[in-house]
Amino acid sequence: MPDSGRRRRPGGHRPACAVLVALLVAAAGSGCASGSGGQPGDTGHRDRPAAGQPGGEPAPDPAGGHPGGPGRLAGRDRAPGAHENAKFSPAVRAALAKKWGLGKPPLIAPRPPAVKPRITTREGFEVKGGDDSLPPVFTTVPTKDRVVFLTMDDGSEKDPELLQMMDELDIPYSAFLSDYEVSDNYGYFGEAQRLGVTLNNHTLNHPYLPGLSYAGQKREICDQQEIIEKQFGKRPRLFRPPYGNYNGDTLRIAKSCGIKAVPLWNAEAFPDHMEWREGDEDLHPGDIILTHFRGRAEWGASMADLVRAVMKTVTDRGYAVARLEDYV
């Protein structure tokens, strides 16, 4: 189990050698494999899987590096989708899982498709007067791979332990940021970006967009595009409207300032349960999972607790977590 009482600043992790030596000892001296070795806050705002229809009512508002490499296990520059843990032996992956309190190592996602799938708007999520030129709104990526996609919204909780945990376990996730939640610590999300997390648009202030004028929506969406580009050097391609609610203006405005797709979600993860959009209450290939940057104040649990819970569900059902931007 991780030492949840210790807070490390982003990038302030132990050298890779020390971490790997400890893990190798815990794994009875096993080495690192060269092959794949495995299978494939918004404070006060809680998005709900039932939301997401255009113009719908808002949801209730309930108050380390690989073995031969230099540097650190966490806190290094790395290419997104590097499949770092695929280079570790099963024993080392098991030791990493044990360190972070997971019952099983995360399954390893297959290599992303050479050609990204064609994504269209989910039936029932269309807007009046919309056409194929607008960014598609979807909850599941069309793929036969047994992968799901983990996304985190808002940005109120900035837990250094989350950065280290996701980096060491090599679990990809995508962040959808609201500026009013992240502007007090852009550096935290800059570190997440350096570790391979893509930073996407979730508006400036998390409003109910269909209730705003065209100009108000444009400010919320396009000004957030500008801020993310200025702070992090890259203009987002993906946008998630607050509460999953939008209208035709939302999509036209998003397109005008560079948005290519609008991923919603098919399940929502909490530290103590999952909530499902579909009646079968199960995962499906390509499903997008929503959760939030929240912590003990709102959840009574840490981000690490949340990750342990969602990974148990994902792994027990035979899925790997893949990087959303590799498919969209």
Largest sheet at a glance?
Answer: 7 strands, mixed
Weakly predicted, low-confidence segments? 1-18, 24-51, 56-81
Which class best fits the helix and strand makeup? alpha/beta
* Strand residues, percent: 5-15%
- Total DSSP E strands: 9
Helix content: 25-40%
Average pLDDT metric: 82
Order of helices and strands: HHEEHEHHEHHEEEEHHE
What attributes characterize this protein structure?
9 helices; globular; 7-stranded mixed β-sheet; alpha/beta; disordered N terminus; 9 strands; 27% helix; 328 residues; two-stranded parallel sheet
Structure write-up:
- The protein is of the alpha/beta class and about 325 residues long.
- About 25% of the residues lie in helices and about 10% in strands.
- Strands 2, 3, 4, 6, 7, 8 and 9 form a seven-stranded mixed β-sheet that branches. The chain has a two-stranded parallel ribbon with strand order 1-5.
- β6 and β7 form a beta hairpin.
- α1 crosses α2.
- It is globular.
